Amino acid sequence: MTQSVGIARAHTNIALIKYWGKRDKELFLPMNSSLSLTLDAFYTDTKVVFDTAFTEDRFILNGLEQDEKEIRKISRFLDLFREYIGEDRFAVVESLNFVPTAAGLASSASAFAALALATATALNIDLSRQALSSFARRGSGSSTRSLFGGFVEWDMGTCSEDSLARPIDEADWDIGMLVIAVDKAKKKVASREGMDLTVATSPFYQAWVETAAQDLAAIKEAIAERDFEKLGRLTEHNGMKMHATTLSANPPFTYWSAASVRAQEAVRQVREESGLAAYMTMDAGPNVKVLCRASQMEELKRELSVLLPEFQLIESLPGQGASQLTEEEWQQSHSRFQKEVGYEG
Ligand code: PMV
């Protein structure tokens, strides 16, 4: 066959129990298991075309041809699939990111999950979703969890094959997330560098690993019991602990900006004064994500926008797992991208 095509969509996820640190950098094996909520508001659509006529891999992101450095990341990822089945065709990868790139909204999570599914589809590789999640992991750790919807656990596993994601719960019980977008600029310290430095130098790191395992067990209980307060408190505590490890790295660093701290204070104030259930978490960027009740999201948004008038507040509900798209849906996605996001450059 000269040409084969695969198209897929994957949503981002936000970790409630964070993945922070690798025990194997080559295989992307994590130091601890993690758990996330997939979000419907942010996603990546990706089309992969393999063709005997192509003489190199290409990568077009949001309508822009990417440079060699970006192409190398994609090529290395495609190689995992090519080597798996003995494929030697090059590919053109085109992605539309309905996510502000690299602002701690985990665009790499949706990106590599969509690319994994599109590639497996194009090459007709028959893998279970769980097995596919272990391929996605090699692109970026957080993308392991984006193959599934709702609450998803990434089991650290014992080796490459069993370090994979599993769906825990559909999160169809009055759950929402409000993102306080304090800054959409590219992050200053990539998650990869940040976690590597932390593992190597933070004296608190061992405590992180030990308590992350306890937090994970407790949050799974909270989900099984549908205990929102417990879920929220564990989320906030775990996220803050992750960020405490960056402050104790050497040299120390932080993903927080002054605006992040203001946003955190606003969340605390609203929680105390209005009694709304709202718990925050942050990733490798300055934005603050607030876990809340879907039924209270409008009210929470109103309250927060009074305190934080200059920041965009983006609402999201739990999202679905990755799915294949038709050519027609891909065309629609292009039109929507042009209308909603606009091509850069
Ligand atoms: O896999 P990456 O490079 O997207 O790193 C993810 C790191 C955090 O977002 C901070 C935590 C997580 O589990 O998503």
From TrEMBL:
One of its GO terms (molecular function) is diphosphomevalonate decarboxylase activity. Keywords: ATP-binding, Lipid biosynthesis, Lipid metabolism, Lyase, Nucleotide-binding. InterPro entries: GHMP_kinase_C_sf (IPR036554), Mev_decarb (IPR005935), Mev_diP_decarb (IPR029765), MVD-like_N (IPR053859), Mvd1_C (IPR041431), Ribosomal_Su5_D2-typ_SF (IPR020568), Ribsml_uS5_D2-typ_fold_subgr (IPR014721). Residues 177-317 form the Mvd1 C-terminal domain. Its EC number is 4.1.1.33. One of its GO terms (cellular component) is cytosol. Transmembrane segments: none annotated. Pfam families: MDD_C, MVD-like_N. SUPFAM superfamilies: GHMP Kinase, C-terminal domain, Ribosomal protein S5 domain 2-like. It comes from the Bacteria. It is an enzyme of class 4 (lyase). GO terms for biological process: isopentenyl diphosphate biosynthetic process, mevalonate pathway. Residues 10-165 form the Diphosphomevalonate decarboxylase-like N-terminal domain. Belongs to the diphosphomevalonate decarboxylase family. This is diphosphomevalonate decarboxylase. It comes from Streptococcus suivaginalis. The gene is mvaD.
